[in-house]
Amino acid sequence: MKYNFDEIINRRGTATIAYDGQRKVYDYENLEPFWIADMDIKTPDFIIDHLKGKLDQAHFGYLVWKQDDYLDAIKHWYKTRFKVNIQKNDIYYVPSILFTVTEVIREFTKEGEGVLIHTPSYNAFLTLIEGNKRTAVESSLIPTDDGYKLDVEQFESMASREDVKVLVLCNPHNPTGKVWTKEELIQIKEICDKYDVFIVSDEIHMDFVRSEEGFYSMTNLMQLDSSLVVVTGLGKTFNLASLASSYMITKHRYFTLQFNRKLATYYGLSAANTLAVEAVKVAYRNGADWVDQLNNHIERNMLILKEFIDQNMSDELTFIKPESTYLAWVDFSKSGYNEAQVQEALQSVGKIATGIGHSFELSESHHFRMNIACSEEKLIGGLDAIKQSFNALKNGEIK
Ligand SMILES: Cc1ncc(COP(=O)(O)O)c(C=O)c1O
């Protein structure tokens, strides 16, 4: 079946943060959103129809999430998509990805201690590290001609610091769209083992890998009691961010015990969402073709963006097409404008909301992040808006 990812859907006025929650982040309202990471693409009918069937049952009492259908569906997805054998006993429903990332941080570090991250970094990691009174310790990714690579020496030197106890790995990487190579991930694991650094690998973007080698999950490197938690879910892949459909995979017995005990007796958070569990079952059994076609659509949008920049804005912007995610990390250093000027232009002239670079970095930023999981028509509107914004900067219309 051929799916249509160019259908225009109207999410404004539906209490969707991308559209109706801009005030908290931007100086203007009613911007065309290219910022927060959810899609202007509908969740596929085979999921919606299944959930409607569940709604018809008309009861939503407390749920046993540990069901064979649920665990088998996850196992099936990993086997067929990533060629990994997951043990059902290692899978746990979790309230959210970020909750789980943060719980690893709280479990293995004390206030003031260091949490290693690769920069630029998914902004919520930075906020949560700071909010939990820990220190973000930076391993900066090195820009290359075709993306970014790990700075092994710097990474090892940061991992060896006495105060660094946890690495938050973003695999694949948001915001750069970097696909970590198997070799890099093995190196990361060896270095972390050497210095006793616990890894939480956030793999929420795993289904958007378009490189030839494909996605290498850290679950490949998991053994009994490995200091490793992998956390992921359906939120990005099937546009179900608000359904709380995340799960973790780990063989670390102490963390599992602590985590589940605290969910029940400390946070009071052990109830699972019926619709999320049902969505996992149906998406992971029937979703492969839809996800493949979605990736083709995203790849095409990335190419449109790349060609537009190369042909029309190469004096101002640099963009390397990422091998994963639907997020474009666009560099405006060549333009000579600072971030405040560029954002003012994008918002007041272009009337678009893009991810604000400095929220992903610990220093000054020369990037904006653009979510291109939308119709071609919307994307082209966004590209025109970017062009107009930089024209306004050139013409001195923005102070
Ligand atoms: C890398 C990454 N992790 C986690 C999340 C959010 O996950 P959750 O809503 O399940 O906490 C996002 C959303 O943008 C993300 O990009």
From TrEMBL:
Its EC number is 4.4.1.13. Its cofactor is pyridoxal 5'-phosphate. It comes from the Bacteria. Residues 57-380 form the Aminotransferase class I/classII large domain. The keyword Transport does not apply. GO terms for molecular function: cysteine-S-conjugate beta-lyase activity; pyridoxal phosphate binding; transaminase activity. Keywords: Aminotransferase, Lyase, Pyridoxal phosphate, Transferase. It is an enzyme of class 4 (lyase). It holds the Pfam family Aminotran_1_2. The keyword Transferase applies. Belongs to the class-II pyridoxal-phosphate-dependent aminotransferase family. MalY/PatB cystathionine beta-lyase subfamily. This is cysteine-S-conjugate beta-lyase.
